[in-house]
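Example 3.2
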Amino acid sequence: MNTTPKKKKPVVDDTQHQGSGDSLAVQPNLGKRILMSEYFVLYLTILYIIVLTPIIPRLWHPMNIQNILSNLWPLLVVAIGQTFVLIIAGIDLSQTSVMAMSSVVGAVVMTRSVDPILFTKSPLWGVFLSEQGGLLSNSIFALPVGIVVMLLVGLFIGFLNGFSVAYFRMPPFIVTLVSMMLFSAMAIFLTKSENIRHLPEAYLEISKNQFFVVSGSLIIAIFVMVLAHILLSRTLFGKRLYAVGINATASQISGVPARRTTITAYMLSGMCASIAAILYSSRLEMGRPTLGSTIFIDIVGANIIGGISLAGGKGKVTWTLFGVFFFIILANSLNMLNLSFYIIDMVKGSVILVAALLDVARNRISREQM
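Structure, written as tokens:
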């Protein structure tokens, strides 16, 4: 019998291997967590500002900060309106025309005097406009009535869009594209492409800053943001919006009033566009028939960058805020670099494309984790 003791197998300490494997596993998980975080765009914006500060020291100049904030609030308001529509898997191309029409109609009501040389060929001359001003020129009711009329314009156009989409089952893209063309042309036709000036001083005060950053625009934008957040997260209407966006047919079978929800979403979009028109036109001190004609890419781009899905069923007001903030900082920095307008548009388009690709990646990761 062989009594030779067997050699013991050497004990291998594999803790180092496990540690390295864990570290390799943690890095992808950390990357996924950051990518899937609701604050991903905010983190990206902070990183972008940190990188940008040494390159553009003027970024923190008080006048530039004031310029950023003055552009932030009206864009945030109109982008929130677009958020409601995107959640139900729609799109509203007519927001810029709503802004133009609201601006013109409000100015027609409120203006205190009109230059006859510029407006005698306008169809509004002699009926709604005269040398003495608009319908309620120099009246104490000019400001409140003018603002109410502007909001009604947005609600009306939004109703037309929503009704056409909900009851006639027309594609949202076509419906809102026609609205955009129709009402943009109407605003230009009514004013013969002239700006309506001499608005009430109280109206102009809305966008003027008090104590550097506090203004009526800030208060209005925060009010709209809080109200929209409550609607989406705390009300039955918000749940219905997400349900329609995920599957309109299934939601209707389940008892959700899909048509009414769709119409309401477009009306909210139109009203937000009118509120943005108030903020923009009070800052410009005029009713402008081309107001907002160049910012549609900013509206949709801010939503996409924020993480609002074009497929519907997903979106939050905070995401819209982060997207708008990033887009405003991006546009401001590109302008400060003195780049050509077409290069700026190329960069904006590229950023929106990357954001759309990131949205696809986030959706894929979400499905894998389910």
